[in-house]
Design goal:
A: 435 residues; 2 domains; 13-stranded mixed beta sheet; elongated; B: alpha+beta; four-stranded antiparallel beta sheet
Chain lengths: 435, 404
């Protein structure tokens, strides 16, 4: 029966090709446009690390000075607080992290020295955020406190320096110091770059990773955001370290509710204690954010995609209303045929199924064409955006494709409900008389 | 005249009317707000930075190795750059306008008056920065070489003179503005007094989305921090020739460094506003598509409703209606439906705009957008039904006598 109804749908399409194609086109454009925005939201606002996003927490402290009007508390931590939290957070995996830039002087004199983007972090960073390794691994915990000059390279940097070979144990001359390679990352493109949404949430990952303490010890050139709300007292690097200047991100992994409660208590009492010393005077609403909460708090999803989401929903509504009207025209146009079928014994149930299948058929065609529209749209946006953000992810995947087709069929059938109901309730007598 | 019969005919097909009217309402909402967003982004993109952008480019030099002396290198580089034919002037600066990266602080008229602090971007450059950027001095004097403070990054003491923008002067000195600012002392958050020696007409802060984008100061400082950014102004038309020449010259004059970020200000502006131009293009595509779909929907339903009424049209023609009156009937019918649509559309447009204004801090829509959008959609409706209506007007009166 299903096959027969599909054949009827095909026949009906052929009898009225312009009207039918118009419907397919409307569904395709509406769904296609919606899926472009859906894909952008799916990746840009999606959960980048679903299996542990609720365990990883970013710390926010009560920064600022109540005297400053409209001061948003900086999302990063000061050196003083970071050092205190590092000492006090020993039971849980945790990492401080900050960006730097440095110059690499390759051993091979034929390669000119070049500058790399880097990150200082703790050994837990690699396991907390599930970084994939091509060779070796992250450094051992003892390297953090031992301030060992070890380095993890990105896959690209390893290719540039060592031709992609297993370089574990080799030496990299960075910022005038020798670092020993302990690991090489595999390709990794977290979208958004959830572990650092404050320095370009859609930027590529860093090329080199070193123990965080070395940023201070070796005076690496820091490159991330720095926010100060009180001038350093005196001159020199130590004055900067002691100042109310936030430049360090701090993440902690809390595996269960119990750990979360304990850590929250700990952070709250730390904040209260510091407040009693005259620091942390500007209260914040929340001090621990999991990955998804943090991305919302830091407004990672650009305004543009949110505006476009609303517009795309309205575009889809227009296209579906269009389809309602066109289906109505089409079904009522075939009233004589429906009359004949009813007279020959088809009851309302089978007429209903026949027309649901016909609407679904239009929807499926629209969905397939909509995939094309969506692919074209994403490609267009990718070209327009150029190298502004990492955009390799901007393409249709299986989930999106399935959602597209299903959404197209379901929405066309829903749009068709009223026309179908009208078609099933035609009085056959009138139409038979006219034949 | 014909209004009554048309209305009664419409009432017999309420759903058809609602479908088209709602479509028109949504279409109008999207189109009017999209045009409003496009215009608003256009305004953002067309704000001048105050500099001679088309003739400016920059290059960054990062030294390495034990023997690299940044202070000497900067002096040497600037000397060479300023001698190159075709170069108007060059300066060493911490960042460039419109680049979305830079440094900010705030200034107050009283030391320690944090509550009255006025936020401002800080450019740190040597004494040739005004001439290099092409800034117009409207009060006071330019820097001299003696004003320039060369300091390490770790020092927190600023140079004690500054040139500020007119907008900042007016915010700090609401009474006298630029003229009143010259010679006055303003205070940094660390309570250091700094004397305003000049005011420039305009110099935008580096962040395109910053609410205080017109507030900038230029501090005559060379910060020794491992990396030097040279901003270079050329004679008109000389930029393409000079960019590679400058890179070559710098590379040859000192091997202990790498050169990066050789870029023009125009490219920087394009990149900083790329999101806005992408948004503009996407919205343009949306507008064209939506008008097309809506128009096609109107055509489809009009053809259908005319076909259903072929006999009635034939009858009217047989009873003496002219082709013109049939045409008028359908045009008027569409005008009524579209009229309902654009009235609903006006309400929806404003509601959606209120949502945009409240959620995204955008300015309110101009009043003229709504009537213009209503008129435009009425016109689209009329254009869409003109074809089907003319076909209807050509239905022969003889049709009335046939049974099908």
């Amino acid at each position: 029966m299903f096959i027969y109804y599909v054949r009827l749908a095909l026949l009906s399409y052929r009898r009225n090709p312009i009207l039918s194609s118009l419907m397919v086109l409307a569904v395709a454009i509406g769904i296609g446009a919606y899926m472009v925005i859906f894909t952008l939201n799916y990746f840009m606002g999606g959960d980048p690390i679903p299996h542990k996003s609720s365990q990883l927490h970013h710390v926010q402290l009560d920064y600022g000075n109540p005297a400053f009007p409209d001061f948003d508390p900086p999302p990063q931590l000061t050196y003083i607080d970071t050092m205190a939290l590092l000492d006090l957070t020993t039971d849980y995996p945790r990492t401080a992290s900050s960006k730097f830039v440095g110059i690499v002087e390759p051993a091979n004199p034929e390669i000119r020295p070049f500058s790399v983007s880097g990150r200082g972090n703790f050994s837990d960073f690699f396991t907390m955020f599930d970084l994939p390794f091509q060779y070796g691994s992250g450094w051992h915990r003892s390297a953090d406190e031992g301030r060992q000059q070890v380095i993890v390279l990105s896959r690209e940097l390893n290719e540039q320096l060592f031709g992609g070979a297993d370089s574990v144990g080799e030496t990299v001359h960075l910022h005038g110091y020798n670092f020993t390679v302990v690991g090489v990352l595999d390709t990794w493109t977290p979208v958004p770059k959830f572990y650092d949404v404050n320095n370009g949430p859609f930027d590529p990952i860093e090329e080199a990773y070193i123990p965080w303490h070395l940023i201070v010890d070796l005076r690496m050139d820091r490159s991330g955001n720095t926010n100060c709300w009180q001038a350093p007292e005196g001159d020199g690097f130590q004055a900067f370290l002691n100042a109310e200047c936030a430049w360090i991100q701090f993440w902690v992994e809390l595996q269960d509710r119990n750990a979360y409660e304990n850590y929250l208590n700990f952070i709250n009492s730390y904040a209260a204690e510091q407040k009693s010393f005259g620091r942390l005077q500007q209260p914040v609403d929340q001090r621990l954010f999991d990955v998804n909460e943090w991305m919302i708090e830091q407004e990672v999803l650009p305004d543009e995609t949110r505006i476009l989401s609303a517009l795309a929903a309205m575009l889809l509504a227009v296209c579906l209303l269009n389809t309602v009207g066109l289906l109505l025209s089409k079904f009522l146009g075939k009233a004589p045929e429906i009359g004949v079928r009813q007279a020959l014994g088809a009851h309302k149930g089978s007429l209903f199924i026949q027309h649901v299948i016909e609407a679904g058929f239009i929807g499926a065609l629209g969905g397939v064409l909509g995939l094309g529209v969506a692919a074209l749209g994403l490609e267009g946006i990718k070209i327009l955006m150029g190298d502004l953000i990492v955009s390799d992810w901007m393409q249709l995947n299986l989930t999106v494709a399935v959602v597209t087709i299903v959404l197209a069929i379901v929405s066309t059938v829903i749009a068709g409900l009223y026309p179908i109901w009208r078609a099933c309730n035609i009085n056959p007598a009138i139409h038979l008389k006219l034949q | 005249m014909e209004f009554g019969p048309i209305l009664r005919a419409l009432l017999r097909n309420k759903l058809g009317v609602i479908l088209i009217a709602v479509q028109i309402a949504f279409t109008m909402t999207v189109i009017v707000n999209a045009i409003y967003i496009i215009n608003q982004r256009g305004e953002l993109m067309s704000r001048p930075s105050g500099t001679d952008e088309s003739n400016l480019f920059y290059i960054r030099s990062i030294g390495f190795g034990e023997n690299f002396n940044e202070e000497l290198t900067v002096a040497d580089d600037l000397g060479r750059l300023r001698q190159m034919p075709g170069i108007v002037d060059a300066t060493v600066i911490n960042t460039v306008p419109v680049s979305n990266s830079g440094s900010s602080s705030g200034f107050s008229l009283e030391p320690g008056a944090l509550e009255s602090i006025v936020p401002s971007a800080i450019y740190r450059a040597d004494h040739r920065s005004l001439n290099t950027m092409g800034l117009e001095l409207i009060a006071g004097v330019d820097f001299t070489e003696a004003d320039v403070l060369t300091r390490p990054q770790s020092s927190n003491t600023d140079a004690d003179t500054v040139i500020i923008t007119q907008a900042l002067a007016e915010e700090l000195f609401p009474e006298g503005g630029a003229q009143a600012a010259v010679g006055q002392s303003i205070y940094t958050p660390s309570q250091q007094a700094i004397r305003v020696i000049g005011v420039v007409r305009q110099l935008q802060a580096p962040w395109t989305l910053w609410p205080d984008i017109e507030n900038s100061v230029i501090s005559p400082e060379i910060v020794i921090d491992g990396s030097s950014l040279y901003l270079i102004r050329t004679e008109p038309g000389e930029q393409d020739r000079l960019m590679p020449a400058v890179e070559e010259m710098l590379a040859a004059s000192n091997q202990q460094r790498i050169l990066r970020q050789l870029r023009t200000m125009s490219d920087t502006r394009e990149e900083s506003y790329r999101i806005d131009s992408v948004m503009t293009r996407i919205l343009s595509v949306v507008i064209v598509t939506l008008v097309f779909i809506t128009a096609m929907g109107i055509v489809g339903l009009a053809v259908f409703s005319i076909n259903r009424r072929r006999k009635q049209i034939g009858t009217r023609r047989a009873l003496g209606a002219t082709q013109g009156s049939i045409l008028r009937h359908f045009l008027l019918e569409n005008a009524i439906i579209s009229g309902i649509g654009v009235i609903a559309g006006a309400v929806l447009t404003i509601a959606f705009n209120i949502f945009l204004v409240q959620t995204f801090n955008m300015p309110r829509i101009g009043w003229y957008y709504v009537p213009a959008g209503m008129l435009a959609l009425l016109l689209v409706g009329q254009l869409a039904v003109i074809g089907p209506s003319r076909a209807a007007s050509r239905i022969t009166p003889a049709l009335a006598t046939r049974s099908v």
